[in-house]
């Protein structure tokens, strides 16, 4: 049995779908109670309800599990508390492995929520529990909520410079790599950078223009407007501050990384942006 945390989010759902293809049953833990059917349909064998920051909830969820795939909710101030709870549960369940879904560049102090994760990684390394850490780049999928707006306006926008170099990655490649790491004992004690080759908004817009057959322009969105929208969606003050710092950092440094590790893990080059875009267009056409 493998336990996946934060299972109802986009990362969690992708992991359930991928891990469920192996024979080992998947248990998930989440707070919400209105997604059980959806997560079962994706392949979760057991749905547990509880708070990741609550040691009793986490320990109950981890009991009997071989491994924990730890996804932390995004940009939360109590990440350290959640991590301690997950580590305590990993110890009480005597799991074979604690796998942490981290982010690229936890070394960068300016990226407040990445930097906080450096200390989660440290706590995991020092916990004595066998571990693997995936340092994951931003997903191509982050643009999907604004896909319709892009078609309407002819603009592919993000709140950072259009020439910023980003080592974006297909979440499907990430889950495939995660599944391999989880099932390969040789990956114990490893830290893996999981990202694709760098690409800019301008390059993505040129690809989108070609595959959609209509002009798409890259646009830097006003940061204040994007953060106001995030606030309306319920993102906390802490999260908003993380976003502001993140966009300022991306403007200058992007978020770069090497695709070689992912290529080695999945045994092929990471999915390129054009292949991803064509897949989305096909899926949307099929759904109509
Ligand atoms: N998005 C990216 O491009 C990207 C790239 C690399 C790494 N990551 C990392 O992936 C992780 C997940 O990101 P995401 O965008 O997939 O998240 P998400 O869609 O926002 O999902 C977060 C999930 O966490 C759950 N949650 C929040 N607080 C909880 C708590 N105290 N106890 C139990 N469940 C709780 C939420 O469930 P409820 O509704 O039940 O609260 C929700 O299902 C983050 O750590 C992020 O840094 C993301």
Q: Approximately how much beta-strand content do the residues carry?
A: 5-15%
Query: CATH homologous superfamily name of the domain at 2-137 and 170-194 and 258-271?
Result: NAD(P)-binding Rossmann-like Domain
Rg over C-alpha atoms, rounded to the nearest angstrom: 19 Å
Model regions low in confidence, pLDDT < 50 over at least 5 residues: none
CATH topology of the domain at 2-137 and 170-194 and 258-271: Rossmann fold
- The rounded distance between the terminal residues' Cα atoms is 37 Å
Number of helices: 12
Structural class: alpha/beta
- Order of strands in the sheet with the most strands? 3-2-1-4-5-6-8
Report the average pLDDT across residues: 97
Q: What is the CATH class of the domain at 2-137 and 170-194 and 258-271? A: Alpha Beta
Q: Secondary-structure element order, as H and E? A: EHEHEHEHEHEHEHEHEHHHH
Question: Helicity level, as a percent range?
Answer: 40-55%
The largest sheet is: 7 strands, parallel
Instruction: Name the ligand types.
Output: NADP nicotinamide-adenine-dinucleotide phosphate
Shape: globular
